[in-house]
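Hi again,

Forgot to attach this to my earlier email, sorry! This is the prediction with zinc ion bound. I've pasted everything inline since the attachment limit keeps bouncing my files.
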Amino acid sequence: MKELYADVIVDISHEKLDKPFQYRVPERLRGKLETGMCVTVPFGNGNKPLQGYVIGLGEECKFDPARTKDILELTEKSVDVENRMIALAAWIRKNYGSTMIQALKTVLPAKQTVKQLEHRTLERIMNREEIISLLGESRRKKQVAKERLLQELVAQESIPYEWVTGKLGVSSQTVKSLERAGAVRVVSHESFRNPVKLTEKSEQRKELSAAQRAVADAVIADLDAGQPGVYLLHGITGSGKTEVYLELIENVVKRGRQAVVLIPEIALTYQTLLRFYRRFGDRVSVMNSTLSPGEKYDQCKRARQGEIDVIIGPRSALFTPFPDIGIIVMDEEHEGSYKSESSPKYHARETALEVARLHGAAVVLGSATPSLEAYYRARQGEYRLFTLKERLTGGQLPAVHTVDLRKELKEGNRSIFSRRLQELLADRLSKGEQSILFLNRRGYAGFVSCRACGHVMKCPHCDVSLSEHRGAGLKCHYCGYSEPKPTLCPECGSKYISGFRAGTQQIEEKLGELFPGVRCLRMDGDTTKTKESYQQILSAFANQEADVLIGTQMIVKGHDFPKVTLVGVLAADLSLSAGDYRAGERTFQLLTQAVGRAGRGVLPGEAVIQTYQPDHYAVVHAAAQDYESFYEEEILYRELMGYPPAAHMLAVQVFARTEEGGKKMAERLAEAVKSSFDCQLMGPAPASIEKINDIFRFVFYVKCSEYDKLIQIKDLAEGKIQEWQRPETVQFDFDPMNVM
Ligand code: ADP
Ligand code: ZN
Ligand code: ZN
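Structure tokens for the complex follow:
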């Protein structure tokens, strides 16, 4: 019988992970030992018994077998935070492909001595009445930024400084003028604790509507019955989802358990946080990218010690070491940022389900435009679906006009602005109302289409748009299929067939030509290199320093501009032809969000969607704000083509120093997969960006109806890579969100 060895970590901290110790598993413990279990091992020269955790098992001895010691015993211990973390890491490793060490580093916080970081807060020194009188004054003088700050100071006596200049968009000059007036002072703190102090913790509690009540009651009843489930809450912005989360969390906390609230970073607004602080006070904390590793570690320590009950943050908040999580809320469940972009490429939704399983917790997913995955599972009966239909904040959905750009061309308008959009823009400018122009470009929008008939060049095998490559014609990013770029449209014979290039800068120029003197702000990758610049643009627009905001998708998320009454989508086709199977879904989401930006305030809004494919179902249903109809058509496409969620897909990426080496490695791996598994393979082909930093990238995709089979394929590939001992490296991406 072969020996069995276990990798054991005696100090489960980030820093020691790279150095596990190997022990022999004695015969009596065979079959009993699993990854994550706590064991007692003899340690060091004196063989002092220490407790450790098993992070891996194998038959290969990495050291001298004669000098490898035996595990003493399995430590009988109730399941603790460490066990769960290790079990979770093992699950991530298995399902997404990475090393155990990488997976452990993902779930464990990096220990760091917290350098006494300076944290500044703005504290009010005047009393509430004096602040209110200042507020009246700045209102009269139309000092909007100052007004916003004072408004906050009425409700609370202390605000983190970075929120003042960040989310509230108030300049340091404005703060200084209030300091001079003796209204506030800036205070430095040394340690990081709760960033918010509220004078009135209590909030005006709302009586839940019948629809909200039904959700809350169902979830709580299941939790109390010891059968927590997964719930999908489908409701437009303003339909009261957050209010339901608050109610649920309150009930969970009352039962002595904890809650994790996942919110995409971009939607983590000050207003949302305040609602949580008002309800849970000091017992809530935030985890976001502005925290240093030391601060994050501090938050984890507080969670472990039972100092907080609720954590709010993006993806990684899922790994907060709470002793007993009762509920995980995932707001804006459809957001792409929930998928990790570096290895292990885990998806927060599936990982949340596993964390919930380990704790016996409920999972509530919320979205106005649910991901196909979540809606599909709900339809299959795996998740329970609830729909909130009414908007509780008032404000009507905007009137939507879809403009056919083919017709514009036929009738002689070659501008990037349709006549309808020009008219409406002129109208808003004359009334002093604001507009947003939205360029929904994403990823590699190198598609080629006909401006006369709307025909898009597509891959005959994968049914996704082909991308134009300089000098290499048109290419499919999935399977590598290529063909020369046509000079005439194969559909209608028109010569107006070309790539689609329009940048935000170009739009700004054209807008200036059309409306001389128009005040314009631009938001895209170029103008938002820093976090501050992003905030600055948003607050300048909120302060009405511009008439028109032009930007890419970053402008349609999370922010409310009540004075915006017109939204123009310049070319819905840009995301519709993005060259991957999620193009339709992403377009529907973006258009729905964009359209929803108009008419948030008291004034009714209008939206214009310009497109060469006005009959595409994603455009038609987004214009009608009809999610169900969109889903019905989209799921047919996924089923027909075998794309997720109807099936599963694994991207195998190869990284190589030489083109030849990468190509060969990808081909050998693909061959090995093909000869052992009955599955559908696309590629190998060069990745959409063929070379980054002198590293060549190749990729192939495997489609299969069972996820488990893809895990086996990953394991096979990992085995081959070890066997061949090649210098190329490989990464796996399950159900990828983007083309590689
Ligand atoms: P969502 O999270 O779906 O965008 P919110 O929970 O933020 O919706 O609710 C939108 C607005 O409606 C908020 O201002 C909230 O205070 C208010 N609201 C929510 N539920 C109720 C209710 N039952 N009664 C009155 N107002 C409510
Ligand atoms: Zn054509
Ligand atoms: Zn293809």
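The first strand starts at residue 5 and ends at 9. The pocket of zinc ion (ligand 2) is lined by residues 450, 452-453, 455, 489, 491-492, 494 (CB under 6 Å).

That should be everything now.

G.
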